[in-house]
Amino acid sequence: MNMPAASASVAPAANRTQLRVGLGERSYDIVIGPGLLAEAGARIAALRPGARVGIVTDHNVADRHLGTVETALREAGLSPTPVLVAPGEKSKCFAVFEEVVDALLAARIERGDLVLALGGGVVGDLAGFAAAALRRGVDFVQAPTSLLAQVDSSVGGKTGINSRHGKNLVGAFHQPILVLADTGALDTLPLREFRSGYAEVAKYGLIDNAPFFAWLERKWQAVFGGGPERIEAIATSCASKAAVVSRDEKETGDRALLNLGHTFGHALEAGAGFSQRLLHGEAVAIGMAQAFRFSAAQGLCAQGDAARVEAHLRSVGLPTRIADIPGALPDTDGLMALIGQDKKVSRGALTFILARGIGQSYIARDVDPSQIRAFLEVERQPS
Length: 383
Ligand SMILES: NC(=O)c1ccc[n+]([C@@H]2O[C@H](COP(=O)([O-])OP(=O)(O)OC[C@H]3O[C@@H](n4cnc5c(N)ncnc54)[C@H](O)[C@@H]3O)[C@@H](O)[C@H]2O)c1
Ligand SMILES: O=C(O)C(=O)C[C@@H](O)[C@H](O)[C@H](O)COP(=O)(O)O
Ligand SMILES: [Zn+2]
Fold this sequence. Notes:
Layout lengths: L16 E5 L6 E6 L6 H8 L4 E7 H17 L3 E7 L8 H13 L7 E6 L1 H13 L5 E6 L2 H7 L4 E6 L2 E8 L4 E5 L8 H18 L1 H16 L2 H20 L14 H10 L8 H18 L5 H13 L16 H8 L10 E6 L5 E7 L1 H12 L3
Parallel strand pairs: 2-9, 3-4, 3-5, 5-6, 6-9
Antiparallel strand pairs: 1-2, 7-8, 10-11
Bound molecules: nicotinamide-adenine-dinucleotide, the ligand O=C(O)C(=O)C[C@@H](O)[C@H](O)[C@H](O)COP(=O)(O)O and zinc ion (ZN).
The site of ligand LNCXM5UN has 11 residues, from loops.
Subcellular location: Cytoplasm
Cofactor: NAD(+); Co(2+); Zn(2+)
Pathway: Metabolic intermediate biosynthesis; chorismate biosynthesis; chorismate from D-erythrose 4-phosphate and phosphoenolpyruvate: step 2/7
């Protein structure tokens, strides 16, 4: 039985950053800082007192953080039911989607109740899509626990799963009602995963914030080290994303800039079988380096800028070349077929995010496929 909220007050804390995604009646807060998972109950009960909460999470995150969240929810008079999935990109598929939806229905998550996505971007995208579909839509809260999820996937309402035809091809725009980014959770995140998320942080600098990219070049060790710079990088990233999403929720215009590095990156991720061989942020790092190399090869941006992008990504330990991906990949035709399924394709015409320089990315529509093919042929040669 659902219980009324016992106590739904949250003590104001100095070490919190709060941002708002302005979307009219779908507006919501992003709260960033340490210790937020322990406050999840009070913060969620303040929005939906007495709700049942289906907590979708993966085994890695459950082992480390589920207990804190369940206790917090119960203490606030909420009724949690955990729904566990296997960690990793392969869980963003139809079969696991069905399992999650079934488990949420079995837990009697009704309209007026909530889904809580506790984990990285895989859990966020999967749980968000389940929430969008369940009973034609229930509310959901994002509690991102990876760097990638805290700076990118928990904000903006893109939810979905992969198909055999490619990445994120089935999904819905469904905004969360709250994002709780507990920066303390990052203390348990493996280094490779932190690096992967860092690629999306660097992306915001490369899109339209050259001073932020320069700041990251100087401060990246502190961001990795966990000092105040880490929270600053997360907050700057979320502010960038919130601003774009508020302007263009459904990517009819400049939200596509957030796809910098993703047209190449998604094809490589799919080509590597959505496996541990290539994490999403690693694919984006290669894709961003490629977008800058392609732009430089077309005379659109200085070679020096492309070199600077690659140097920074490599300095933090991210891959920047196809040759950095272990194992076999599809041939160039295969990669072109995957690129042809990109959601930015319109009537067969390719759209890429290209750059006139660092912080000067732009949307290039109707890019000549033969130029992309020729570029990929060169990129595939071992250096
Ligand atoms: N919806 C969007 O706007 C958007 C944006 C960017 C990326 N994405 C998607 O996000 C996914 C990638 O997200 P990700 O990099 O977070 O991957 P992920 O969800 O697979 O998480 C990375 C790994 O870290 C583990 N993990 C997460 N938090 C942890 C913690 N605090 N301690 C220990 N382990 C932890 C997970 O179990 C997993 O093994 C991709 O599917 C990508 O397409 C979506
Ligand atoms: O939020 C967006 O918009 C983005 O493009 C953010 C990307 O980092 C993210 O990987 C997103 O899921 C890609 O979107 P898609 O529409 O290309 O699937
Ligand atoms: Zn991404």
